[in-house]
Amino acid sequence: MKSLLTRAVVYGLVIVLGLLSALPNFLSPNLSAKLPDWYQQNTMSLGLDLQGGSHLLLEVDTDALFASEYQAIADELTKSLRQAEIHYGRMKVTDEAIELPLRQAERLSEAATLARKLATDTPDGARRFNVEQEGGSLVLTLTDTWREHLSRDGVERSLEVVRRRLDETGLVDPSITRQGSDGILVQMPGVADPSDIRELLGTTAKMTFHWVALDGWESGGGVFTLPGAGEQAQYQLEERVAMAGERIRDAHMAFDPETGEPVVNFKLDNEGARQFGEMTRDNIGRLLAIVLDEEVITAPVIRTEIAGGSGQISGAFTTKEANSLALMLRAGALPAPLYVIEERTVGPDLGSDAIEMGLTTGLLGAGMVIAFMVALYGRWGLIACIGLTVNIGLVFGILSLLGATLTLPGIAGIILTVGMAVDANILINERIREESRRGKRAAMALREGFGKAYSTIMDSNFTTLIAVSLLFLFGSGPVKGFAVTIGIGLLTSLFTAIAVTRLIMEWRIRGRERESLVISGIAWLDRLSERGVNFMRGRVMGLVVSAALSLAAIALFVHPGLKYGVDFTGGTVVEVQTQGITVDHLRHTLQANQLEDTAIQEVGSEGRFLIRMPAEHQTPGATAEQVSLLKSAVTSIDPTAEFPKVDMVGPKVSGGFSDATILAILLAGSGMLVYLWFRFESHFALAATVTIALDLTKTIGFFVLAGVEFNLTAVAALLALIGYSINDKVVVFDRIRENIRKTPEKPMLELLNESISSTLTRTVFTSVTTFLALLPMGIAGGAAVASFALPMLFAIVIGTSSSIFIASPILYYLGQRRMRKGLAQLRPTDEQIRKELELMP
Question: What is d(CA 544, CA 310) in angstroms, rounded to the nearest whole number?
Fold first, then answer.
């Protein structure tokens, strides 16, 4: 009794804390405002697919970083060579190497020594580049270590510049995070059209001041040519930078008092003011070019010394252009260009629809599961439903504590958790019913039922966690949210099933521990399970049919193949809502704007189109330009056109998704193979892995036949399938292992039939609850979750049937092969080893 009370207090405290953690998510703004600030912030944030907004994945152009570093090294080297009076020829600088021919071959070794000294001229003595002598030239190449340093430093500096630029725009709560080795992810809630932000972040804003070369200098070296902004003029400029833009301390848009045109007034720091004063004093009458990103904005004549540390940039700007330039100068220049390689936009209406859909389908699914459990087990089913409700509350509480972002796939994960969380309760109830039918009293039946179910629950949940962890490691964005939700749901379901449900059950039988415990079920299914079914009689037919279906699925995969989404093919999908525009008119307009390769599909209501464009492979950022061009073309014929959703994925990102998907599936299979080998035996592990492979191929065939788009959400479905399917197999295999140890002399076929029959009710009930949880989402979820819900519904049916008709026959044949080799079906337990040692003389 004391133990029961102590556990009740401890478990109750955990539950109350978890529910209190989730509470701020469900309070109205008025009530939430009365809470302490730290408690108000203990909430989940909504993902962009639920609240609307945009995200941009930017890639730092590391080639430009390396080229800039090579140019800096070349300047240092030529300066050192001039000081040493070593003559050299025309230098060749690329983003791969520096090649410098010497005119004095006898001094090549001396020049190499100077170069090697420069190579280690760093604060920590790290070597920047390698020096080689080839013929009469020096060849300098960056070391791998220094390349990594440049990339890392370039991304970190770019992050800071992006953050400053977005802060200047006044965006509400933008999220800026590093992704991968050279990516920056920018998420902007409420931004339905990120074109201005894309342009702002894609501009390097590297400003320098150069003197325009005097007549006669063109052939003297140290001169380069740049175009003027918005005009045909070409400027011959000195290569030497008169002053760098980093000296600009502040910049603001203003209007020229004489012309009324927008201009940018800037202020320099102390060193910049001194330097600017000296250079203007010594060069009165010369043209000073202000260069921004390889383009001359303006080149005014210096009339007098400018000693105040301030200046003005004019260039026939519009107000918007002057504001943008001032903003970028204040935020600083990017160390290298940034290219948009992925863009996703969801309008606010779509986001609210997604929330409504998730809540409706989730509540319907949970309601159907609860109704089924109560109808099946009566008041004992109601206890399981209490545990299920607590489980959902704890999931929300932990997600809130972690400050997680709830996405549409995350909602799908919670709904799937509802179905899978019932699994442990069904397994426990069925074990308790078995023990009760054997004549054991309530307390003993409860103890034995939980004890025998414990290892099975742990094995099945651990194998599912393997798949979920790989989803988190290799997934991206919302898929990670799905993985986190499922992972947390599995852990909380372990707590509620093994601890909370047991506590309530023990409280329920208190005072009647010696009475019989009756848990209702389906009578005919119970009789079928007790009588046993000869499932193994059709083992050959089952394997043949399964293999034939898998081969057919592979053939469908080859031709006609999967309907890949932009996540894997790259390209752009834009949803367009217009008024009174036909498909032909839209197609003609796009073709006139050099968008001939677009595919246009009418969807839903009249005037709603889905436009697909292939990825541009020629230049970085070209795919992002497609989006702007398409929007301009559509608005030219309908200025009121709306773009509720944009998905743009560059070829580099899509290629990465493909590699990560294959790797995740292979690692999931390998991880489960190793775990089952450790927990069971090699032939158990191999039988489960082969069956999973057959389940996967059939599900791929379903994707093809049903025409469901294969995207990142589909990958989540496949890995969830692996976890769910192996969960089923583990329960059957666990009973087979138990029966082998109990009656090792029994024929293998009889033993397998007995094991499958005894777990039949659990297998059927678990599949039904998971199916019911996902059914509303599969029916009413729409295209947003179709790639997850529909394949999962199919996978539940396939996974359940394969646990009965495929996995056990494969295990039988592998077991027979093992017997012919003279090996036991299971390794001896520690207790068996101890007994054998005791019997030894």
Answer: 83
- Relative to beta strand 53-60, strand 45-46 is unpaired
Tens digit of pLDDT for each residue in 5-58?
A: 888 899 999 999 999 999 998 888 888 888 888 888 888 888 887 888 888 888
Q: Which amino acid is at 131?
A: V
DSSP structure class, residue 24:
G
pLDDT in the model for residue 301: 86
- The pLDDT of residue 217: 52
Q: Name the residue with tokens 């000869």.
A: 534
Q: Where in the chain is the domain with CATH 3.30.980?
A: 62-142
Fold of 207-333: Gyrase A; domain 2 (3.30.1360)
| Every domain range in the chain assigned CATH 3.30.1360.200 | 207-333
What CA–CA distance (Å, rounded) separates 689 from 696? 11
Does position 618 have pLDDT exceeding 70, yes or no? no
Q: Which distant-in-sequence residues (6+ apart) come within 8 Å of 432 by Cβ?
A: 445, 446, 448, 449, 450, 517, 519
Cα–chain-centroid distance for residue 161? 24
If one looks up domain 572-649 in CATH, what number appears?
3.30.70.3400
Torsion of CA 460, 465, 466, 467, to 10 degrees: 100
For 680-702, what is each residue's pLDDT tens digit?
Answer: 888 999 999 999 999 999 999 99
**Closest alpha carbon to 136 in 173, 103, 164, 167:** 103
DSSP β-ladder status, 405-406 and 45-46:
parallel
Fold of 348-560+655-835: Multidrug efflux transporter AcrB transmembrane fold (1.20.1640)
Q: Which CATH number applies to 62-142? A: 3.30.980
DSSP single-letter state for residue 497: I
Q: What is the DSSP string of 138-206?
A: EEEEE-HHHHHHHHHHHHHHHHHHHHHHHHHHT-SS-EEEEETTTEEEEEEET-S--HHHHHHHH----
SS3 at position 663: helix
Task: Yes or no: say if 51 and 351 are a contact pair by the CB < 8 Å rule.
Answer: yes
Domain(s) of CATH 3.30.70.3400: residues in the chain? 572-649
What is residue 572's three-state secondary structure?
Answer: strand
On the 0-12 / 13-18 / 19+ scale of CB atoms within 10 A, 838 is exposed
Q: Which of 463, 457, 452, 451 is nearest to 678 (CA)?
A: 463
d(CA 602, CA 246): 51
Provide the pLDDT for residue 172. Answer: 60
What region, left, alpha or beta, does residue 125 occupy, with left being phi > 0 and alpha being psi -120 to 50 degrees? left
pTM of whole model > 0.85? Answer: no
Written as one letter, the residue type at 799 is G
Domain with CATH 1.20.1640.10 in the chain: 348-560+655-835
